[in-house]
């Protein structure tokens, strides 16, 4: 039996005495969708930023398919097959939709140091395939700077897929989208994950999305994991109910974005 | 020992003078995020108006009242400038404000000559502070003691203002979150005006207080502005306490430095700044800046390489340019050659600014290093002309590689200031290292060999090299590397997440841009026959920025057009008027406010609209509205 | 009809008569001097200079011009930048077709123009630049210089300094080529005359950016008997003020370059330090017929008193005209041949361009500073003929490239 896709042991991080993440451990397998939920300030983003190398943990280990990645910078982590989308979309606003994907593909092929040839013509077919996968093929020529927010999220997903990742980190993938689009985007992501055997770790405020698509759910509160399990288990967990009731949110109702 | 104490006190007095001006700059930046180049001009106006008032009003009251009245008058002028000019460009990138205020500086220089005449003016000594006090057996001017006290007093006063008044609390809130203050229903516009006027008041007061120590002259502004910038950057932009500490550091290091090494003054402040910024990228007390405002204004539709027809057009333009020697005389050809050289220089800067999104304020350093490299190659190594050019490129590239390695560690205004610091260090070396560079007297007799010396042949050589250079820069912009560079500019976060390292990419671009600038500089040396330190100077760096802006910072190579228009304009102005600074300053201000897209950018914005009017294609080329 | 033709005849006659008049004859063709200076960068110095040459041009044309032609000066601004000076020179030579180049204030601009003149084989008459290089190490066949050079000023001052009892000397000079070479020459000449002198320290503030307090304090700590000052302009004002308040100049001799020139001493007003030994130009106490005539004409035309720049500008045109008259043509080679060893008039009396290095022997006044009626003046000023303050021919030959 090989090592799990992602295994996290005793991860901790504090900022000026405030413990943002404490002793978090979990694993994630290929093809699995794991949701990380919790109220605002629970430490979800810090956790994410440690996983892709933006933030260095104080303590704990992160391994991807058995390889230690703790303390590696985002570029190295990416090279190991980790794709990432951001809570507030980060795309290349001055480029067309296709060019955004092409940059990702060029990076994957290690071709970005080349100073000759027109980048806009290289790997165009591959880029279009990825765009087709996220349903953006028709928008390939459009300036990404003028896309609607939902389309930007799709584009980001396509860019995150350029390095054929085994692990996808999605920070609030549906934030800011209309409810119908949310479900559709998450369904798309789940399909891709299962088809390509990608493990997805995502955070999400929209509990409809979480409970519909996640295989497993972890609940983070004040930096600690307070519950973990299938959607059905977590839904019944009294601690989770307390946290969310205390916050004034109810399961099934819509969380504020 | 006694001597050292007194030297320390003297340094303290210098620190206070510097701090007054620096604190104003820091406050203005902290709240409005404007890098106010005109701060030196307000300092100078303070001194001039104080001179006029104190010459008219007699007695102690007349003197001190004159100083305060002058500072208030200049503050009013500052408020006017803010309302008329700066309000229109708050949302624009820092570069635009810096250039607009630079334009104001140029205008004030010529205006003050027109109003107060060209001669240096020596104002009154302060009543009651004419003499000196004996401290440890040494004479210390009593006015110095007054200044020493004034620094901490102003620092304390500002602290009280910011912590104990409603205005101050709002200002501090605005420093942290401008939009929030707007949401609180505070009239942000007047808050900004108030802060700007306060900063200008401090600058003018600083200038007025120099009346008993200094001569009032129309070069005061540039003498102080660079040093004040450095102090504010060392202290951390927006930090008043940091500014005081930095002023203290710079003044004391200078006071004691000259005892050990009397020639250190010129480079000292820049060395201190370089060291501080390398160790602490945001200055002593500075906080990381928020996300920088887009280096580019309202973004455009994605850049496209030239179409087949457009390439033909360019080839035709090139052919037309190549035919110029058949119709033009040697003066026009020499001006044409100069324009081509500046087109290459501006295009190299544009690679950094437009594709890289980083504005270098010291790009002249690489131009100048190229010029010196070529000159030294030709003179000292007796290299033939092509090898001397290569020698220039090598020196400029090397310089860019070394300086760039430090600069790309920073971003935004700090990046700009560090590039400026390195350029000033290079300038100081050229200025003072007389045995190698000839110092101020420069290197002479750098003429091309006989086969290349006729204006027409040299023009053709320059045309070929400049066109090849601009074409190469364009090719780089559209190459995979160019995409990586733009990726880092658009979103460093996303770029890192797909494996593109910001520093490496920006450093490579910095070196490439430096290399092309060096080629321009090397050609310039052979065009003029001589090389001088001003080939590395701040004015040339600013010229480069203006050319890029004039051409259109959102374009790939609009700078070529910018260089053409700007250079031709300055040659004509120099030739026709003694008040070229007034005209040029006005030109820059109008440009920034009315045509922020520049010439090529405006044309490009216009063309798609015309095209769409003809054929209603899909809205693919729609412009995103400018912010 | 008849009356009309009478009028026509009268008109034709008057035109014919006019053409015959000498003044109109002078209009037949022009002799053009291309002049370049830092008018926008340094107006305090170049304005009086411009007035000086304008006065000379006016007088010369009134007297019939040069070689029967009208003298025209086409003047350009260089903005204080050598590169722009070369552009301007190019314009003057290729477009305006001037017969000779003249001008420049800054040394480096003078050098750039001298080098340009050599390349383009144009006659260049440098007015104000002080650097020794322009006639010596970077000297060339095409370049002549009018004003007494750095070396000459240093030699005049060193002569006076040698008479002082002072043994311990300190120097303050702006840190660039002018300051460096001024200090070097002064030291060399004074040490040659007075081997007993000890140089106790140097201060090199940056040009235009002196931090005067610490500099004064540092010099005071060297405890010199005498001080050499080379700073000028706003730097000098700051130095004098700090020095006065800190007592640096009390009981110390000070020798100072150029401080007696009205351009530098006037701004100091009643704060002018007393008793400094300086070179300069005491315009109101020069009593020679040549100078009287110049002074009267200048004051009448401009309602202002002349500065040293006015004298240089005036003498620049005087000497240029003398050269062209002697050459009898504007051919560059003939101009050079004519200029070598040519004697010409200036407001300071007769002067000459040395054949060996093309330096004019125009001198300067050496005297002491004083305050009179609330303004700075030079007293006990004596005119020193520049010819006596130049190195021997052998030394010059060693320094000047022989071509």
Automatic annotation (TrEMBL), chain A:
A GO term, aspect molecular function: L-phenylalanine transmembrane transporter activity
Transport in keyword set: yes
Start and end residues of each ABC transporter domain: 6-247
Pfam families cross-referenced by the UniProt entry: ABC_tran (PF00005), BCA_ABC_TP_C (PF12399)
GO cellular component: plasma membrane
Keywords (A to Z) from UniProt: ATP-binding, Nucleotide-binding, Transport
InterPro entries in UniProt: AAA+_ATPase (IPR003593), ABC_AA/LPS_Transport (IPR051120), ABC_transporter-like_ATP-bd (IPR003439), ABC_transporter-like_CS (IPR017871), BCA_ABC_TP_C (IPR032823), P-loop_NTPase (IPR027417)
UniProt record, GO biological process: D-alanine transmembrane transport; L-alanine transport; L-isoleucine import across plasma membrane; L-valine import across plasma membrane
Family classification: Belongs to the ABC transporter superfamily.
Protein name: ABC transporter ATP-binding protein
Taxonomic lineage from the root: Bacteria, Pseudomonadati, Pseudomonadota, Alphaproteobacteria, Hyphomicrobiales
From TrEMBL, chain B:
Family membership: Belongs to the binding-protein-dependent transport system permease family. LivHM subfamily.
Top-rank lineage group of the source organism: Bacteria
Transmembrane segments: 6-27, 34-51, 63-86, 98-117, 145-162, 190-212, 224-249, 256-279, 312-333, 340-361, 381-406, 413-433, 457-485, 505-527, 547-569, 581-600
Compartments reported by the entry: Cell membrane
One term of GO molecular function: branched-chain amino acid transmembrane transporter activity
Pfam families cross-referenced by the UniProt entry: BPD_transp_2
Keyword Transport: yes
Protein's membrane topology: Multi-pass membrane protein
Sorted UniProt keywords: Amino-acid transport, Cell membrane, Membrane, Transmembrane, Transmembrane helix, Transport
GO cellular component: plasma membrane
The protein, known as: ABC transporter permease
Automatic annotation (TrEMBL), chain C:
Domain of life: Bacteria
GO biological process: amino acid transport
CDD domains according to UniProt: PBP1_As_SBP-like
Leucine-binding protein domain boundaries: 30-368
Signal sequence coordinates: 1-26
Keywords assigned: Amino-acid transport, Signal, Transport
Family statement: Belongs to the leucine-binding protein family.
Protein name, entry field: ABC transporter substrate-binding protein
Organism (species): Enterovirga aerilata
């Amino acid at each position: 039996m090989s090592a799990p896709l992602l295994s996290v042991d005793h991860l901790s991080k504090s900022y000026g005495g405030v413990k943002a993440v404490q002793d978090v451990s979990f694993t994630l397998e290929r093809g699995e969708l794991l949701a990380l939920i919790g109220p605002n300030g629970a430490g979800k983003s810090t956790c994410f930023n440690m996983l892709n190398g933006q933030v260095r943990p104080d303590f704990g280990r992160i391994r991807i398919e058995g390889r230690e990645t703790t303390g590696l910078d985002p570029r190295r982590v990416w090279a190991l097959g980790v794709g990432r989308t951001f809570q507030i979309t980060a795309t290349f606003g001055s480029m067309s939709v296709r060019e955004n994907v092409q940059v990702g593909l060029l990076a994957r092929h290690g071709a970005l140091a080349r100073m000759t040839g027109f980048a806009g013509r290289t790997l165009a077919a591959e880029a279009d395939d990825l765009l087709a996968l996220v349903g953006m093929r028709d928008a390939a020529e459009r300036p990404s700077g003028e896309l609607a927010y939902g389309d930007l999220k799709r584009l980001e997903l396509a860019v995150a897929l350029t390095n054929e990742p085994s692990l996808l980190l999605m920070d609030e993938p549906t934030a800011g989208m209309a409810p119908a689009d949310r479900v559709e985007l998450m369904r798309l992501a789940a399909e891709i994950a299962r088809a390509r055997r990608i493990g997805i770790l995502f955070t999400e405020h929209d509990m409809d999305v979480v409970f519909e698509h996640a295989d497993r759910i972890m609940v983070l509160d004040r930096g600690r994991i307070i519950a973990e399990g299938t959607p059905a288990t977590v839904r019944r967990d009294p601690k989770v109910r307390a946290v969310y009731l205390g916050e004034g949110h109810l399961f099934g109702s819509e969380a504020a974005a | 020992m006694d001597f050292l104490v007194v030297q320390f006190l003297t340094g303290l007095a210098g620190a206070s003078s510097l701090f007054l001006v620096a604190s104003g700059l820091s406050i203005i930046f902290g709240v409005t995020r404007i890098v106010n180049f005109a701060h030196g001009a307000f300092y100078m106006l303070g001194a001039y108006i104080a001179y006029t008032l104190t010459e008219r009003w007699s007695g102690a009251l007349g003197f001190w009242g004159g100083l305060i009245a002058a500072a208030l008058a200049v503050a009013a002028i500052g408020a006017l400038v803010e309302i008329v000019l700066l309000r229109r460009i708050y949302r624009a990138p820092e570069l635009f404000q810096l250039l607009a205020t630079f334009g104001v500086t140029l205008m004030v220089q010529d205006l003050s000559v027109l109003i107060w005449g060209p001669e240096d003016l020596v104002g009154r000594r302060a009543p009651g502070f004419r003499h000196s006090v004996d401290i440890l057996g040494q004479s210390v001017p009593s006015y110095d003691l007054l200044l020493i006290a004034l620094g901490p007093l102003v620092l304390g006063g500002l602290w009280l203002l910011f912590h104990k008044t409603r205005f101050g609390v709002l200002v501090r809130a605005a420093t942290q979150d401008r939009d929030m203050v707007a949401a609180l229903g505070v009239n942000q516009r007047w808050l900004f005006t108030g802060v700007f006027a306060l900063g200008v008041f401090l600058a003018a007061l600083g200038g007025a207080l120099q009346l008993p120590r200094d001569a009032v002259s129309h070069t005061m502004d540039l003498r102080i502005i660079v040093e004040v910038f450095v102090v504010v950057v060392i202290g951390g932009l927006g930090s008043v306490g940091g500014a005081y500490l930095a002023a203290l550091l710079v003044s004391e290091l200078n006071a004691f430095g000259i005892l050990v090494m009397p020639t250190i003054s010129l480079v000292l402040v820049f060395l201190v700044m370089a060291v501080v910024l390398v160790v602490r990228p945001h200055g002593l007390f500075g906080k990381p800046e928020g996300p920088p405002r887009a280096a580019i204004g309202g973004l455009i539709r994605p850049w496209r390489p030239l179409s087949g027809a457009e390439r033909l057009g360019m080839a035709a333009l090139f052919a037309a340019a190549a035919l110029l020697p058949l119709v033009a005389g040697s003066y026009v050809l020499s001006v044409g050659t100069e324009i081509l050289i500046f087109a290459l220089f501006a295009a190299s800067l544009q690679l950094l600014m437009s594709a890289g999104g980083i504005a270098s304020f010291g790009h002249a350093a690489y131009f100048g290093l190229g010029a010196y490299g070529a000159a030294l190659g030709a003179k000292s190594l007796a290299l033939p002309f092509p090898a001397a050019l290569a020698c220039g490129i090598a020196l400029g590239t090397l310089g860019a590689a070394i300086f760039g390695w430090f600069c790309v560690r920073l971003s935004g205004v700090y990046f700009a200031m560090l590039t400026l610091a390195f350029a000033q260090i290079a300038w100081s070396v050229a200025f003072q290292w007389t045995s190698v560079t000839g110092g101020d007297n420069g290197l002479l007799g750098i003429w091309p060999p006989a086969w290349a010396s006729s204006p027409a042949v040299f023009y053709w050589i320059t045309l070929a090299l400049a066109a090849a250079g601009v074409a190469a820069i364009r090719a780089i912009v559209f190459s995979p590397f160019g995409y990586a560079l733009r990726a880092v500019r658009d979103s460093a976060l996303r770029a890192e997440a797909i494996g593109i390292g910001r520093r490496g990419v920006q450093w490579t671009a910095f070196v490439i841009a430096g290399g092309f600038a060096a080629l321009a500089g090397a050609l310039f040396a052979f065009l003029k026959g001589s090389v001088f330190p001003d080939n590395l100077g701040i004015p040339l760096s600013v010229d480069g920025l203006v050319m890029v802006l004039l051409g259109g910072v959102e374009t790939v190579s609009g700078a070529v057009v910018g260089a053409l228009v700007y250079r031709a304009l300055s040659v004509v102005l120099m030739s026709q008027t003694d008040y070229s600074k007034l005209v040029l300053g006005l030109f820059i201000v109008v440009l920034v406010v009315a045509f922020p897209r520049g010439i090529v950018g405006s044309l490009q914005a216009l063309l798609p609209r015309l095209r769409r009017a003809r054929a209603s294609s899909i809205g693919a080329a729609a412009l995103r509205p400018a912010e | 009809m008849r009356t009309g033709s009478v009028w026509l005849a009268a008109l034709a006659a008057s035109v014919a008569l006019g053409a015959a008049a000498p003044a109109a004859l002078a209009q037949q063709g022009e002799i053009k001097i291309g002049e370049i200076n830092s008018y926008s960068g340094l107006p305090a110095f170049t304005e009086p200079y411009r007035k000086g040459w304008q006065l000379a041009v006016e007088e010369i044309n009134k007297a019939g011009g040069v070689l029967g032609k009208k003298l025209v000066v086409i003047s350009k601004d260089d903005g204080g930048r050598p590169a722009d000076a070369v552009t301007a020179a190019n314009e003057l030579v290729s477009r305006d077709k001037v017969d000779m180049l003249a001008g420049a204030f800054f040394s480096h601009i003078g050098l750039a123009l001298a080098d340009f003149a050599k390349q383009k084989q144009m006659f260049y008459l440098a007015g104000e630049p002080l650097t020794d290089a322009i006639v010596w190490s970077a000297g060339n066949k095409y370049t002549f210089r009018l004003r007494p050079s750095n070396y000459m000023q240093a030699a005049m001052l060193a002569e006076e300094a040698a008479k002082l009892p002072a043994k311990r000397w300190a120097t303050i000079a702006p840190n660039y080529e002018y300051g460096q070479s001024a200090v070097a020459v002064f030291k060399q000449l004074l040490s040659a005359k007075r081997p007993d002198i000890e140089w106790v320290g140097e201060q090199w503030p940056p040009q235009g950016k002196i931090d005067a307090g610490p500099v004064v304090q540092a010099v005071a700590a060297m405890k010199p008997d005498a001080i050499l000052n080379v700073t000028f302009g706003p730097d000098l004002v700051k130095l004098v003020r700090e020095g006065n308040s800190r007592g640096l100049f009390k009981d110390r001799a000070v020798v100072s370059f150029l401080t007696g020139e009205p351009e530098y001493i006037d701004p100091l007003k009643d704060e002018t330090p007393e008793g400094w030994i300086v070179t300069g130009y005491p315009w109101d106490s020069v009593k020679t017929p040549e100078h009287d005539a110049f002074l009267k004409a200048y004051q009448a035309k401009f309602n202002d008193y002349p500065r040293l720049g006015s004298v240089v500008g005036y003498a620049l045109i005087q000497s240029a005209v003398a050269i062209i008259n002697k050459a009898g043509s504007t051919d560059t080679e003939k101009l050079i041949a004519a200029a070598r060893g040519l004697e010409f008039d200036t407001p300071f009396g007769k002067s000459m361009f040395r054949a060996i290095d093309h330096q004019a022997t125009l001198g300067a006044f050496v005297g002491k500073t004083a305050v009179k009626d609330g303004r700075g003046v030079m007293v006990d000023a004596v005119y020193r003929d520049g010819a006596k303050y130049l190195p021997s021919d052998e030394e010059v030959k060693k320094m000047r490239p022989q071509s």
